[in-house]
Amino acid sequence: MKRVGVFLCWCGSNISSAVDLDQVAEQTALLPHVVHVEQYKYLCSDPGQETVRKAIKEHALNRVVIAACSPRMHERTFRRAVGSVGLNPHLMEIANIREQCSWVHPDKVTSTPVAVDLVRTAVAKAVKDIPLEPSYVGIEKRALVVGGGIAGIQAALDIADSGYEVVLVEREPTIGGRMAQLDKTFPTLDCSSCILTPKMVEAGQDPRIRLLTYAEVESLSGYIGNFEARIRMKARSVDLDRCTGCGDCWNKCPYRSPGEFDLGLGKRKAIYLPFPQAVPNKPVLDRATCAYFQKDGKCQVCKKVCAPGAIDFEQQDEILEERFGAVVVATGFDLWDHGRYGEYGAGQHPDVISSLEFERLVSASGPTDGKIKRPSDGKLPERVVFIQCVGSRDEAKGVPYCSKVCCMYTAKHAILLKEKIPSSQSYVFYIDVRAAGKNYEEFYRRATVEYGAQYIRGRVSRIYPRGDSLVVVGEDTLLGQKVEVEADLVVLATAVVSRSDAPQVAQKLGFSYDQHGFFTEAHPKLAPVETNTAGIFLAGACQGPKDIPDTVAQAGAAAAKVVRLFAKDQLETEPTVARVDRARCAGCEWCRPICPYKAIEMEAVTERVGSGQVARRVAKVNPSLCHGCGACSVACRSGAMNLLGFSNEQVWAEVEALCL
Amino acid sequence: MSVAEREPKIVGFLCNWCSYAGADLAGTSRTSYPTSVRVIRVPCSGRVNPQFVLRAFQLGADGVLVAGCHPGDCHYSTGNYFTRRRFLLVKRFLDYLGIDQRRFRLRWISASEGPKFAETIREMTEELRQLGPRDAAAVEAHAE
Amino acid sequence: MRSEAVRAAARRLLEEGKVVRFLGHAPGFDPTSPFPQLITRAEEAERLVLDHFCAPNLAKYLLDYETQEGVTAVVLKGCDALGLARLLADHRVARDRVWVVGLPCPGMLDRDKAAALLPGVQEARAEGDEFVLTGAGGERRVAAGQVLLDRCLVCAVPTPDDADELLGEPVPGRPVPREEDAAVAALEAMTSAERKAYWTEQFSRCIRCMACRNVCPACNCRSCCFDSEEPRWLSRVTDGPAQEMFHFVRALHVAGRCVDCHECERVCPMDIPLMKLNHKLLQDVEELFELERAFVPREVEPLGIYRPDDPEEFA
Questions:
Q1: Do domains A137-234+317-332+499-566 and A334-497 have the same CATH topology?
Q2: Residues of A in contact with C228 (CB under 8 A)
Q3: Tell me, what's the pLDDT at A657?
Q4: Predicted ipTM?
């Protein structure tokens, strides 16, 4: 027997002045199941809530309708009030007679029938309400951090420092990421390594952080609190437990090839340490460039010189299976390939380089020991042209967005150039200078005023060689004239783009990405580090172009979200989720592709048919993953999939009551 | 009251996160609009089963509005894209069955678009008034 | 036509133990209206027939054996095979539990057309582009176009492309423009009120026998929303709105999933032009979502996916 109590709120005079509540009460009292109607001046106030609680007890109400302000305002308040006297909180509905009635229909004559309809509809829904309970899941209090750049390192350190275990997976042989490749950082000109290396070492030494370098996540299944990851440890050919990092192997290795860390500007051995401060400070053997693997199987110099016997040519890839409660994705970015700009030499001219290559040239630990030698002939360049927005803000050939960091690092490059080669002159072609950030504008000013960088507003149309220099042809749009600058070196601020395999990573881990391959946050304003998959968080440039302070801040935020999750012992999930009527479900699976959270799996059920047992497959909703959007309930033709709280029965009843 | 002056009845299915909030905003900003609309709150426009829409028409609604977040802004990231697909088809199909497609609207109304919600209701009400009752006979029968 | 071939196939498959049951056709009360026939023993093969009146699609009967052990052989024409593809895409039938005996189909006869041309018709045989009808009233030679089912006149897929064995050589499809487009266009040209009147009249004949649903390979739910008590999606009375609801929902539930087999229309005892509903949706699905041959089941149904650049007419 449904016993509905209806409570009409005056909201001071906000409702009562525009709606004839006596008339609403009178008509509502006539509705089936309604056993009690009451008005109160401020229902949301403590005495107002007490009125509701008292009436529930006195009149043995088992459904409550509050006709008041928007449910977006006080749904929680009234759910709590109802719940506090033992009624299931979901046996309460709200009729929005303020925002959607009295405030928009100030005339009592016309607004009162609207209120009557809205209350009747809420009653009809309430009659179909069923008690809903949240579900609880345990939490595996270990975090997986994917990507060992500054974002991943920071997130791992923060999580570990809160007392939880972290596995940090990095696909390169060392952590450090892009930041390790940089020379100095804007706007303070801190040495990048000097501020990064201590964090790398800390991450390497923290007993709660397990570093898995030269490793990749193969797959991720499960859900918030309970993920299962398969991690591939690529064969490093070096036994990390035995290796002491002494360096004998790479010193003796006779084979050199272009080094990845220096972007091919320097050489490394076949067995090598990517850079001196690498963590772990132990080498990797690159089988693709090793004579033992590629040629005769003889060389074995490294093995012969290795005193601890750490070289293992037979090592195989290994798969680890680990459980995690949360994941931070910090896979970083790539740079746009300027080879696509034919007019800039299509990547063919050795002295037209990317800004990251310039970083390696200017870095004290780089292939030129910090001397800015141009790649073609090793000459110190006197005239250097920096070109901004190469690929960025170019819908035709590149990407439409702004890469955010280029304006600032170019100002930095101009300063570093002048410091290293005081006689030099830099020219910067730009579209706009975007220097929003603390001390950023001042930094850019310093580059121009103190270091004499000449900024030319306009795009470069062509770069071509003349003698042993390069001619940069562009337009100065402020003067409205063509400019030609002869340069010894041209540095292109190529766009920050997503990793080429970002979509595959997103698919493997199970969250969405945008048209540029950047990972999509759950909400651009209010959930900037969450993904649409609960329990997976984002940090750094994998989510969009970002500088180091933003990246570190975001990594900290992602870590905080993980820690917030781990602080609980159980995860309570909203009860308004989809539910399957197994008897009706045919197992057609059309609900699955429409679910944005991969919350629907198939399960086998066995049923008695005649004398035997038969097995069938039916849909199963994981309440920890379901966010309650209800898309599946519409995809389901039979009605086997339903959404609790907004069920087919409820909405159907609302439509009928509304149109009465 | 002649048929033409009769206030049309609109059933509005509004998604909780954008359009319902937009309608609330019209309220908080005291933006008045016709009393023709009655709102049913759903979590997402993707929750609106076309069967609800036809049912509303059959029970005497002159118009039906489904409103959700703008494409790309869905609280559930993709719900409204499915809504758009589904109702592209449903709108044409309703029309094919003789329910004039001007009676059905899907609108993207964000939480900040209170004025757009009010304007949508005004527009729809005016258009439905022009179109007249959907089935005059049914309306009369209903009135008896 | 192919009765001997189908009997031989059934005998062989059952004897070899490749299948445990064989679904084919058998003569009904009237030879122009065969029944589906299930046999489980080789000696029962004699009961089977396969002639020009075997229009019924047997694919959906596979659902009856979804929970039973063993492989089921089934005789399928090209159009029927799309029905099976539908069941496969809907995960209702497992392909490895079905043995498809494909019939490259020369076209099936419309028994009403045949009976009109030769009252008491009992048999038909093809001779070139003609059919020879025989029965109590003698013999009559008629052009194929006069007597084939409408759907067979424009059949694009006479031969199953997923058969385990074929009873004969593949038959090419008929590249005939689809006349149904014109039928839809004619309705679209009406005013809204005229269309309303048209469909009200058509639907008013509906006796809610559910034959259209029951025969449809896309209507393969385990429990149908029309049978649901709560919510009662469909009123038990058969008044105008309920009829409209029934036909609206039936058509919409197969939108983007209909395999264009016309079985619903063929079995409708009240001659309601159901394919005018299905074709409208099929055309719109193809046009709006830029799909070709939307009647061919695919991995994800058109309403189970989206494109960010789908037509935007709602703003």
A1: yes
A2: 638-639
A3: 96
A4: 0.94
